[in-house]
Amino acid sequence: TVEDEGSQQGVHLLGAGAYGEVILVQSKSSKCTMALKCCFDCLIPDDPTALKRMYREIAVLRQVRHKNIVSLQDAVLPKTGCHLYLAFELALHDLEHAIRYNLVEEPRRVSCNIARALSFLHATGLIHRDVKPSNILLDKDGRAKLCDFGFVRRSCLRDDPPRAFTEYVGMRWYRAPELFVGTFYNQSIDVWSYGCVVAEMVLGRPLISGIDGEEQLGLIVGLCLGRHPSRFEAESLGVSERNHIAGVVRTVPLGPTLDKKLNGVTDSQCLEFVRSCLKFGPAERSTAEELLRNRFLAGCQEVWSLQNGQELQGRSLVARAFRTSPDKDVWTVFKEI
Ligand code: ADP
Ligand code: MG
Description:
Layout: E1 13-17, E2 20-27, E3 33-39, H1 48-63, E4 72-76, E5 84-89, E6 93-94, H2 95-100, H3 107-123, E7 126-127, E8 136-138, E9 144-146, E10 153-154, H4 177-180, H5 188-203, H6 210-225, H7 231-235, H8 239-249, H9 256-261, H10 268-277, H11 288-293, H12 306-324, E11 331-333
Antiparallel strand pairs: 1-2, 2-3, 2-11, 3-5, 4-5, 6-8, 7-10, 8-9
Helix pairs in contact: 3-5, 5-10, 6-8
Magnesium ion binds at residues 17, 134-135, 148.
């Protein structure tokens, strides 16, 4: 490792998203390694989206603390420059990577961890809205944590105006059917996405690929309109049309395409579990709380080592160091060797 001299070149990149990079850093004071989410140029007034997303992430993560939710150590807004930095506890890799390289040793445990995170989040009145493998982190002990809280919303109350789906930007092929028609939605959209993720872990590939996501949109809206709509047509439907479609969608059984894909899930307990998440009707889906009581997750023990307490102690020191000197260069950036 070498110290960063201001250049981003060759840094150890942990991940890259829509609004910046996540890099490996070490606190100079405590020597703790962490993941630093860097949002470059997000303070430029003509692009408020990135900033809004980061602020939302900070606000939510300050409020929710859970062992299966990634822990935010600190947020740093240097006095000069237009960048915003979020320091997180470090994970080994994300679930997308782990699935791709066949590194998921205990799918049941990961499922259990994320169900716990969702159950906690939902009980707090929040919807994650972007549950997918790349937003699930695995630490070195195989513990799973939900991350990326930039799209979180308070759950809709019955009397709230419908949320238009164009506002929702989550990944299309983890998206619940009701979001394609832009009517009321609630926490159960996270359960649908979660079901796709659990199936993906077991199958080793996405349950619904990108192309299928389009197909699914066609399947749902087409069923209701009696013909296959273009994507743009579907996105520009009026409120009453959407409500009508949503009513029909609720009564549609699991799409035949989806059903066929689930054939690859051979464990009957797991299949029943995944099916309970992938109900077209949001009200028929299991709640996160119910998922935790499902036999598939029953008996899934959480193992906590003493080491964890020590790690946390170190981290709080880091957080203090950041707070007292946010403008100083407090990180050593790990370069790729
Ligand atoms: P974005 O909003 O840009 O998608 P994320 O928070 O999802 O940002 O982070 C992007 C990627 O960075 C993740 O998919 C993951 O690969 C990596 N990453 C994020 N946080 C951590 C962390 N704490 N430890 C290790 N890798 C991380
Ligand atoms: Mg992400």
